[in-house]
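Repro case for the chain-ordering regression, as requested:
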Amino acid sequence: MNRSLPVPTAARAPRGEHARGDAASHAGALVRGVVGGTVDYGRRLPAAEAAVAAVDVHRTYRQQASDVQAVRGVSLSVEPGDFLAITGASGSGKSTLLHLLGGLDTPTHGEVFLAGARVRDLSEAELARHRLMKVGFVFQRFHLLSMLSARENVELPLSEAGVPRRERRQRAEWLLERVGLAHRLAHRPGELSGGERQRVAVARALANGPRVLLADEPTGELDRANSAAILELFTSLNADGLALIVATHDMHLAEGAGRCLELVDGRLNG
Amino acid sequence: MGRSFSELLMARGYALRLSPRGTLPLDTRATVRDVEALRASLLSRPGVAGVAPTLAGNLLIPFGDAGADETVRVFALGIDPDEQGVYELLEGRDPQADLEVVIGGELAAAGLTVGDPIRPRRPGTFAPGRAGDAFRVVGIARFLYASSGERPIAMALSELQRLTDRPDAASFLMVRLRPGVVPVDAAERLRTAYPGVEVASVGELVERAEARLSYFRQLALVLGVVSLFVAVLLVGTLMSVAINERYGGIAALRAIGFPRRSLVKALAGEGLVLCAVAGLIGLGLGLVVAQYLNGVLSDFPGLPLAVRFFVLEPGDLATGYLALLIAGLLATLVPAWRAASLDIAQTLHREEP
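-- result from build under test --
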């Protein structure tokens, strides 16, 4: 059986070439290199070609009459086939950065390129469509619809994308089989364990064949065994060419990623 | 109620009613005098097909064992058996001769049957109407205008006139029109021709009855509007609570690419389903309550049992149901739009630990 995910077939470069975890080393180059949407990495690589790119991104919140700088000058690039873990203490800005990278939030300053588009250029509706088709999200609390079965939950993004009923059913079943839940198709989230729910959430995130999958503390509610299963699943997806960005406290998960960045007070450390 | 009353008044095909000036039929004890002359005159008019003079009065009949002093009050109607609009015969025949009566279901249920004798007399008199004579029951009928607890009987008009000492009088006359004659126009012509009597078409009678019940109509309207308002508040509150509990899920759906429009549509759909189901249950309950109220109101003295105050009108039901659905939809749209417009990142921050 072909276990490869039908994710967009963006060229998958060797992992080593993309392991640009040292943010400080290329942040300046990124800032300098952004000219009309391209980033200079030594060789000219259009930022739009990266799965995700952030260029000198800042995010400041107004909270109780004072400004809180949640993210300060972060620049990074995640290429197709990268597996990036973002770690850091609580309140360090991991989730905020992940939301910025996923187009859920808008930077106060700087630019985010997401799966081939500059986020700032997209209207709200375009951005929603872009996320639907090219980005997958996995949340700590799964956020599955409790009244729908596992298969129906996975079918949701396909339905919104306009995939015909039969095709989306087949694809949902295939995805659930891919994450090891072929026997749980008709079960509702309440009938599944935490690990199984998270695997359903992963299958849902993969429904429309995204270029990048963003996960916010995906193992935060799971025990060690289920966390290991999720890491294994992520590694397998990554091996198929999917770019992954994971914000996590889980050091096992972070170590399993090809690249790890630490956020300290909103800045990339080291 | 209007439709039911109208159907009742037209049950025997009489489109007009003539009653003493300033009254409605059986509103008072007043009578129309010289009724035979009036009848002949009416019948000579080109648009009139038939005239049914009717006299009403209370009589007593001895009841129980022969010779007992116990009497019961009956509501007697004097009619022309060939032209009457007050009963429909169920058994036996019409009273064709003197000393014959048709009785209603109440008396039949009490044991009287065709062939039995009864001796009606006017209240306040001690002897039967005609000494030594007894009336004979010749038929059992359904009296169209009988009210709850009433014991109606019908006899020849001349007999009741004699028994109640009101010669050549009628409480009201019913007029049957020839096909093609417009009742309102005919009523207008009769008003001009007979200024001494009150002329009303069935439509006008229904209007007057409804005018008398306008207070109840207004009350029903106010109750309806209040109910709708409460429904909007209730649906709005229920949906707000239901949606507020799912902010995290809604933000997650927006994060994975569901546009605001889709979510509003889905949430509004939930509200609609809620209203549709609640509306069906409400309609069912409403029908049960209406049935109960019909029973209660029908027991009011003087109101014909056959009148239904709450008639199932499919158009009205559909309008009410539609109004509820629209109200529910509007009540859902506000919380749905608010939820779909939440800042995704902030909501996820708040909802995720």
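Ordering looks correct now. Chain B has a mean pLDDT of 86.
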